[in-house]
Design brief:
Strand order of the largest sheet: 1-2-3
Shape: globular
Order of helices and strands: HHHHEEEHHHHH
Structural class: mainly alpha
Distance between the termini: 36 Å
Low-confidence stretches: 1-5
Strand content: 5-15%
Helix content: 40-55%
Radius of gyration: 17 Å
Largest sheet: 3 strands, antiparallel
Number of helices: 9
Number of strands: 3
Oligomer: single chain
Length: 184
């Protein structure tokens, strides 16, 4: 490993896919861990936003998730893909505390802790043998870079991630060489 890849603050799309595959085969809480990683990546959720996700924030029939943002960011309603809805349905079916308001529970608590989710990502990253040390916030950045590389408008990415200031979003265009296409 080079020092540069070791310090990278995002995961590539392939690395996230590997993380998700390994989470599905994990030793414990496969459905929960897979769903947590999937939602954090797909919706650019911070760890605190993910663990604060309530059952009432989901409309599984309509396929939507209300992303209640932290740190003064703007909250938004996102559409969910079918695999995300299915992942959440599995979690809700399998969890021990059925009447709990929070979607993700730990073994000891009604609500998964932020540090608990960080541990899940770190351990899953090690089992996936990723070339970088995995941590939870890399999933939010991976979402931003994925959207930028897909060619999404910067304002759309800003709204999707809930950024109030466009300066927080601009970073995601830095790795997209397509932004220079057609200049000459």
């Amino acid at each position: 490993m080079t020092g540069e890849t070791h310090l990278r603050d995002y995961l590539t799309r392939d690395e996230v896919a590997q993380l998700l595959r390994v989470a599905k085969k994990g030793p414990r809480h496969r459905a929960r861990n897979h769903a947590m990683i999937l939602l954090a990546y797909r919706h650019g959720l911070r760890a605190s936003e993910l663990v604060d996700l309530r059952v009432s924030d989901l409309d599984l029939n309509a396929g939507t998730i209300y992303c209640r943002r932290a740190k003064g960011s703007r909250s938004t309603l996102h559409p969910m893909k079918a695999d995300g809805v299915a992942a959440i349905e599995r979690v809700l079916r399998e969890r021990k505390l059925k009447a709990n308001a929070y979607v993700f529970n730990s073994d000891r608590s009604e609500k998964m802790s932020r540090s608990g989710f960080w541990r899940i990502v770190s351990q899953t990253g090690r089992r996936a043998q990723l070339p970088v040390k995995a941590y939870a916030h890399q999933l939010r950045h991976a979402c931003g870079y994925y959207l930028a590389n897909k060619g999404c408008d910067l304002r759309l990415i800003q709204d999707y991630l809930g950024h109030k200031q466009i300066q927080n979003t601009v970073r995601y265009t830095a790795l997209n060489p397509a932004r220079f296409a057609g200049l000459w």
